[in-house]
Amino acid sequence: MKVLIVESEFLHQDTWVGSAVERLADALSRQNVTVIKSTSFDDGYAILAANEAIDCLMFSYQMEQQDEHLNVRQLIGKLHERQQNVPVFLLGDREKATASLDRDLLELVDEFAWILEDTADFIAGRAVAAMTRYRQQLLPPLFSALMKYGDIHEYSWAAPGHQGGVGFTKTPAGRFYHDYYGENLFRSDMGIERASLGSLLDHTGAFGESEKYAARVFGADRSWSVVVGTSGSNRTIMQACMTDNDVVVLDRNCHKSIEQGLILTGAKPVYMVPSRNRYGIIGPIYPQEMQPETLQKKISESPLTKGKAGQKPSYSVVTNCTYDGVCYNAKEAQDLLAQTSDRIHFDEAWYGYARFNPIYADHYAMRGAPGDHNGPTVFATHSTHKLLNALSQASYIHVREGRGAVNFSRFNQAYMMHATTSPLYAICASNDVAVSMMDGNSGLSLTQEVIDEAVDFRQAMARLYKEFTAEGDWFFKPWNKEIVTDPQTGKTYDFADAPTQLLTTDQNCWVMRPGESWHGFKDLPDNWSMLDPIKVSILAPGMGDDGELEENGVPAALVTAWLGRHGIVPTRTTDFQIMFLFSMGITRGKWGTLINTLCSFKHHYDANTPLAQVMPELVEEHPDTYANMGIHDLGDTMFAWLKENNPGARLNAAYSGLPVAEITPREAYNAIVSDNVEMVAIENLPGRIAANSVIPYPPGIPMLLSGENFGDANSPQISYLRSLQSWDHHFPGFEHETEGTEIIDGVYHVMCVKA
């Protein structure tokens, strides 16, 4: 246990009260309590701001000064941002303190200890009892049960065979593995025989209580803890909602797990096509794509849904937010899709935090209270491990029940099909803890901190861009509004100079308005989408507002290579866009280093520093290509290639239209299983049917789905693959990753159904 004692600046240490505080600190130490002492408000505030975990906060204040009242309120407020139920003790002189206490302060303080009347041991005992009660309610249901079970130190005769890690210690490699991860990981890795903990698959015991807790915090009627990632969550929902006779409506901007759901169920898809801007940034599906008339037209015209005209789709899915951080007004999207389908799925894998900050109001699935919901059944899937705080593979399914509800027993059949009978309890517990971290005040505090950091970074980049361009020079600029308006005053600001408080709290600063050139989405409806402040894209120079390449530019691939050499890994790179995810683990020092590294790139780029000095590994691996080049020379060569070939426009074209679907994804997969497939070189792809999806990474969105025809030799899909092949030949070391392709002797091949 740990206590923070904050002493007033007005209290002298050599007083009788000061010595009484010292005796209390000694009494706490004798009870194995760690005592941290702070002799000023500023020092105490800094300790709390650093997220120091404490079990009790004590003030040694006489409350005679107005500043003391203010300090106590500020310190308790800071404490409660992240540690809401920590007991607070006020240590004081009864006569002086009681005369100055007010009702507000009485509500903030848990206990008053009269330091000159009660003994140090008595006050220490009261504090330990309060801290014990706090710790008993601190942990969420499952993690608490696991810790209590671990205290039993059982002898197990069941799986897993390593028996709490002992098995690993019997060889040197196993011992290293055991010591690297620590004993608690292995002791908590238990089989499902522990009935006292309940069951993940049956949703009983501590597992069931954990899911009820998650449902309350995330605003669902029911939540399902998933340990096979949101890919498994998506497949589970699809398997519970559709059969091979059903028509389903899918966002074409979907994760590959949605296609896998089609393979498993055999359902017949029609697609809503999203928008893309000049940078290849993925925008929203427009409302007209969700209109009932539009969707019925797609059903009547698609080769996969022939004979099903007029059939009501059993399910629809929208990816919210897009990989690039464009968030739907989910209320509006849900109302539109509800006219067509009784089950709506928002794949919010990268967006699980939205409920906890008002800046995202109306732009996520689990809005408001479950009891207020009236309409279709709504699913939301969250990767708790992505931008919350959980171990990899941790995910949640949240459900608001309405029309088309799938009852517990039926849904659980699909859940068990995709779960495991041997879950790693550490993943389950991390899901539980991720929920508890978002509960109460801490959810707002944590999300606000991330938004604050992201906005600070955006403004720092915007100021640098403004300074450089004012001098006729170049720099990177953040992709966001360039002008914002304060709705209270009507005053407009350059983004770089806007009040930070305005940018971090006002949704209007992020809503995409029709006709704004910065976002580049033509004919975008008003109040349909917003940019997530924490998904930060920066733009390298080279592309005009009209989408045409300028005379000069800086290819983003070269910048990303520079960043990678300096230990910085962006989440996505297009021709002129570099994207960074701000999360709860990002710090000011981390993004400060990013800015320094970008400035360093600019310095060396402008100086045309030889590649042998700044990227020696690249030159060593490919001396024939790069031996005598400077970094600016390479950038110019890359830019000239981009200008001639324009792969971004080809990729946009590939995503903007729909290839002809000859067979369903399930039929294409059956061809793989029956070995009715062959690898086809790029020059022979015209007219062929893909047996697997072709998925450029990142962001991992299918450009061509399995069962679809590549089209003629000039189709955008083949043209894009051809441009990738050319780029890879011209710029070794900068190859692209495209799932579903295989490079054989330098030639792109794709697995196709045999002709």
UniProtKB/TrEMBL annotation:
The keyword Lipoprotein does not apply. One of its GO terms (biological process) is L-arginine catabolic process. One of its GO terms (molecular function) is pyridoxal phosphate binding. InterPro entries: OKR_de-COase_N, Orn/lys/arg_de-COase, Orn/Lys/Arg_deCO2ase_major_dom, Prn/Lys/Arg_de-COase_C, Prn/Lys/Arg_de-COase_C_sf, PyrdxlP-dep_Trfase, PyrdxlP-dep_Trfase_major, PyrdxlP-dep_Trfase_small. The modification N6-(pyridoxal phosphate)lysine is found at K386. GO terms for cellular component: cytosol. PROSITE patterns: OKR_DC_1. Keywords: Decarboxylase, Lyase, Pyridoxal phosphate. The keyword Hydrolase does not apply. CDD domains: Orn_deC_like. Its EC number is 4.1.1.19. Its cofactor is pyridoxal 5'-phosphate. Residues 381-395 form the Orn/Lys/Arg decarboxylases family 1 pyridoxal-P attachment site domain. It holds the Pfam family OKR_DC_1. PANTHER family: BIODEGRADATIVE ARGININE DECARBOXYLASE (PTHR45229:SF3), CONSTITUTIVE ORNITHINE DECARBOXYLASE (PTHR45229). Belongs to the Orn/Lys/Arg decarboxylase class-I family. This is Arginine decarboxylase. The gene is adiA.
